[in-house]
Every structure is written in structure tokens, then in C-alpha cells.
Amino acid sequence: MQACDFCGYDGNGDAISFHRFTLEEENRRRWTVNMRRDAEWTPSESASLCSAHFTPDCFESGSAHLHPNAIPTIFDFTQCMIHQGEHKSTDSSCCGCYKRLQATEKVYQLKLAAAQLQIKEYKKNLAEESRKTAKWQKRAIVLQSAIRAMKQRGIIPTTRKTSTPKKY
User: Which of 27, 56, 110, 161 is the 20 to 30 Å CA partner of 41?
Assistant: First the structure.
């Protein structure tokens, strides 16, 4: 029986679809980061998420199929932590504060991983824009040189007549 790897939902009778983890590495990493899983965790071949974790724009129009670059973004971590807490050991020597501290630390580690991934994307975009800017600056220099050369040869006048706007 198929179940969601985040919330454990098995879709018992509901109109919920299940979606296996994408094979594309970058998007697969984003899925696991958004789920706030350990960095060492890798989804199995049968791992899937239910459609409840995807926004409507992730789906192809009028279909239960996901777009190729769909990223799950809807996760109720409080409910997940409650359910995980019910299934964990009830050892009385374990302090609730320590568990909360560990959970908080894990959340921050996952947020850090997500932020680092976003920074990587921003740096990539910045590098691309810098290349484009340098390319346009070189073109501007070439055009300015061409204009100067044309002025020196007398092909174009050295001064322009500015037209004054007509008054109506």
C-alpha cells in the first residue's frame, strides 16, 4: 500500500494522488530540504508524497500529473512532529526540553541548508547577469569608438543640432 513519506497518509478513499520523488537531482534535493529531512536521508525508489503537499499550480492543467519542475511546499510540521512524538519512545528519563531543543536545532539546520541552496542559486544568477553586463559594456565601448572615428573622418557631424519642441 502506498503512503506519503511525509505525513504517512495512505489516501484511503480520498481523491488524493501520490507522486514519486523526481529523478532530477536538484529538484529531488529541494523536495527533501522542504520536507526538512536529514541531509543523509535519501528517498527510496518507491518514496512518494501525496498531492496535499503541492500547490495547484504544480499540476498540469486539469490533471493529477505534476509539472516536471514541481516542488512541494505545503508541509504542516507541527502535525508531523506531534505524530512522530506519539510513535517515539516514552522513556521517562528523557527531558521534553531536550527533545524540543533537538527538534529546534534540526529545524535551523534544515533552514540553513535551504538558505545555502538559495544563495547558490543567487550566486549563479549574479554571475550570469555580470557576464551579460560585461558583454554590453564592451559593446558600448566599441560603439563609442566607432562614433569617435566617424566624427574624426567627417562621416557624421561633430555637433548635433538640438531641436526645440514646437509650441502648439
Answer: 56
Q: Measured on CA atoms in the order 54, 6, 24, 19, is the torsion positive or negative?
A: negative
How confident is the model over 32-63, as pLDDT tens digits?
888 888 778 888 888 899 888 888 888 888 78
Q: Which of 88, 108, 140 is the endpoint of a domain?
A: 88
How many whole angstroms separate alpha carbon 158 and alpha carbon 96? Answer: 81
Give which of 101, 41, 53 is closest to 79, Cα–Cα: 53
Taking the C-alpha atoms of residue 60 and residue 65, their distance in angstroms, rounded to an integer, is 6
d(CA 158, CA 147): 10
CA torsion, ordered 142, 144, 147, 148, to nearest 10 deg: -110
- Supply the pTM of this predicted model: 0.45
Residue at which a domain ends, from 41, 59, 88: 88
